[in-house]
Amino acid sequence: MIEQTIGIRKxxxxxxxxxxxxxxxxxxxxxxxxxxxxxAFTAEQACNLMRLMQQQHDTEAVTLLGGEPFLxxxxxxxxxxxxxxxxxxxxxxxxxxxxGPRLRDIAPCVDLLRVSLEGIGNTNDLIRRAGSYTAALETxxxxxxxxxxxxxxxxxxxxxxxxxVDLAHILEAHGVTQLKLHQLRPVGNAAHYPEMQVTDPAAYxxxxxxxxxxxxxxxxxxDDDLSGGAAPxxxxxxxxxxxxxxxxxPRGALTMSCKAVGKDSHAFWYDKEADRIIHRPAANDEVxxxxxxxxxxxx
Length: 299
Fold this sequence. Notes:
Layout: H1 2-6, E1 10-17, H2 43-57, E2 61-65, H3 75-85, E3 89-94, H4 100-106, E4 112-116, H5 122-127, H6 132-146, E5 150-156, H7 164-173, E6 178-183, H8 202-212, E7 219-223, E8 242-248, E9 253-255, E10 268-271, E11 276-279, H9 286-289, E12 296-298
Parallel strand pairs: 1-2, 1-8, 2-3, 3-4, 4-5, 5-6, 6-7
Antiparallel strand pairs: 7-12, 8-9, 9-10, 10-11
Helix pairs in contact: 2-3
């Protein structure tokens, strides 16, 4: 349906939000009130969508997230189906809170465990929850000991922009191979904390300079909007044949641009019962509005 409607043939990765439920209520979370929603994929539905994406769009990888994916009871089943049956690369994005036993169980099937952090110590705990910083580092240490490659994500905001380089050094010492930085977008919970927004674009330029001169041994990738200047021109879904990712929320709504996630701007849905992708166009969907995707670059 996606190819027939807008010409996209290949979608490299599926971001699959298995459930909304989470053990955190982070201040920056784009889900907002939906964290309370009961929507979730069954294991069969999740496996069906991965298979469908591979068959129709030559999808090579899946990132499992939520909510918190380690709260999903059938995570092991979904991970093993993705890895052993479909041969997909499997990434998991987690807050890393007390996931040890379940991580040990699925470690051989995980290609990358990406742990979310929002700063060092109290800065992180203020945004996420008390004890979350220590728990995240413990999980990174465990993953390293299990032989699981690790990455980290951070959403840049006013509280943590001055800690990014120091955090990168800490993560490097814990065996983390990549730090991915996102711009904070005022959707979901972040809309209720406007004080978190970085209001001076020059701060992003300073951040980039700090990263470039820090002699880091960890790869740092940035949302290009962190340049502090105008967003770069980039292709929209309607004028290209291949995209890097598509994201499914627990309802089945499919979103192609990170800039549209959390805004109900989706033009496509995965119909769980019929096991097919359907087109539901609207005047404010991401295709009609031509919402560009986020461009990520090395720092």
